[in-house]
Amino acid sequence: MTNKKTPPLSIENVSVAYHRKPVLRNITYQSPEGECVGIIGPNGAGKSTLIKAALGLLPLAGGKVSIYGKPYSQQRKCVGYVPQRESVDWDFPTNALDVVLMGLYGQLGWFRRPKSEHKDRALEALRKVGMESFAKRQISQLSGGQQQRVFLARALAQEAQVYFMDEPFVGVDAATEKAIVQVLHELKEQKKTVFVVHHDLQTVSEYFDSVMLLNLRLIASGATREVFTADNLQKTYGGRLAILPQTNELLSTK
Amino acid sequence: MSSIWIILTGALIASSCAFLGCFLILRRMAMLGDAISHSILPGIVIAFLVSGSRDPLPMFIGAAVFGLLCTIIIQLLRNQGVQADAAMSVSFTALFSIGIILISLFTQQVDLDLDCVLYGEIAYVPYDTWTWHGIDMGPRAMWGAGAAFLLSLIIVRLFYKQFKLTSFDPALAMAIGIPVAVFHYLLMGLVSITTVASFESVGAILVVAMLIVPAATAYLLTERLGVMLGLSVLIGTLCSICGYFLSVVLDASIAGCMTMVAGGLFALAFLFSPHQGVVTRWWIRKKLRTQI
């Protein structure tokens, strides 16, 4: 599955359109392996759309996405997905452990039910994000950060090779942020590739080995220290980047 | 004997409706039951005109086809950007009106009582029995509702995790390769079948109540999906039993009384549910305040 030559994610000339309006245009990208990649760009730049297109959740208007050289539909089992927290109804009658177990449904196939070995795996995933004591807690009684960690645990339980995380850092507390960073480190040590849609420019250099700067088109991509420059950010955000002066020292000055 | 048949039929109808209603509520599609139960009218009329009889099978097929047709139209409209509630109202009122026009056009041939379609009459259930090999097997409506319930139980039991995940997080379901649309239409198909099997006895309007009210009550009482499904069936059965005796006392419509009991139980759950009840929460707050 992990041939050294084929990149974990390869995007060729991908365009996506909602109704008639294009939201992604001619994106071409080859990802490095075993890195944590930040997907950066302003609101409405198509960051989430890119992830959803890669996961086959949206029809492509053109182009091709491959995961380790094959279409996503053949590689589902080696891909983990963390959707945006707001995308689901947290009043759903279920508990944290159950949500994490959902990550294993793909491996269970059509008819098998989760058994105790699966529960152990789900508990282990919860432990990795520091949530094992909340396993039996109804999900609506968790804080936003805890809910995010449950989602992260669910993706970890999938034991994938490539992870896509849609804004995991948005609106979380410090403990959760620490837990997520910890998980990202662990995944990297295991030579897994993680794509993270990210908003906070201050932390980009700290969290990500490489970045994709996106605004309808791919503005730039590559190692963070080479690509995450004031110049490229200006191109990505246009005139809308008011926080540039403060972030200057965090930017690469190549 | 006839009162036992009525209670049993009512309980089976209420249970099968409540069971599927849980999923409708969790998918925020409570009004879909309303849409389906109305849109099957043209299906019944057309089946009647084509077959020329009131045999249950053609009626059943016609109704199920139109129930599904309604959900497909709703889905198509939604995919094209029409708002969910608008898409629903447009589709089912259009189909329902086609049914009404058909009835009024073919009044001579169609011996369908619109009142019966809308309000049903469960009191007549014991007189329409199913005879099998010369043995009286009990009311036909009871067997219909029972079969629908059994079918729902089997399918939901087989695909429990798929129904759960597509209800909670359709994006993840799609990403791991569960055909979300297939399960959507499977659920809608089951709702159509259950509605058809029920509406003759309790009417199109009260089917909606049975689909939603017991499930909504169960939702207030538990935090586990499995428990919610079980509770909703229990509440549905309770509605049938209490509703029947209430109707005897009041000498009033049985289906109406069953629905009123369902409403009453919902009100109780709303006020006194252990976690979400209005009175419960007020009581907890008061206790906390006196402790402080």
From TrEMBL, chain A:
Keyword field contains Lipid biosynthesis: no
Top-level taxon in the UniProt lineage: Bacteria
ABC transporter domain ranges (all copies): 9-241
Key words of the record: ATP-binding, Nucleotide-binding, Transport
Entries under Gene3D superfamilies matching the protein: P-loop containing nucleotide triphosphate hydrolases
InterPro entries: AAA+_ATPase, ABC_transporter-like_ATP-bd, ABC_transporter-like_CS, Metal_Ion_Import_ABC, P-loop_NTPase
Molecular function terms, GO-annotated: ATP binding; ATP hydrolysis activity
Keyword Secreted included in the entry's annotation: no
Family from the record: Belongs to the ABC transporter superfamily.
UniProt protein name: Manganese/zinc/iron transport system ATP-binding protein
TrEMBL record, chain B:
Location of the protein in the cell: Cell membrane
An example Gene Ontology CC term for this record: ATP-binding cassette (ABC) transporter complex
Lipid bilayer topology: Multi-pass membrane protein
Chief subcellular location: membrane
Gene Ontology terms: biological process: response to zinc ion; transmembrane transport
Name under which the protein is recorded: Manganese/zinc/iron transport system permease protein
Keywords: Cell membrane, Membrane, Transmembrane, Transmembrane helix, Transport
Annotated Gene3D superfamilies: ABC transporter involved in vitamin B12 uptake, BtuC
Pfam families listed in its UniProt record: ABC-3 (PF00950)
Residues that span the membrane, as ranges: 6-26, 33-51, 57-77, 89-107, 141-160, 172-196, 202-221, 228-246, 252-272
InterPro entries: ABC_BtuC-like (IPR037294), ABC_TroCD (IPR001626)
Family per similarity comment: Belongs to the ABC-3 integral membrane protein family.
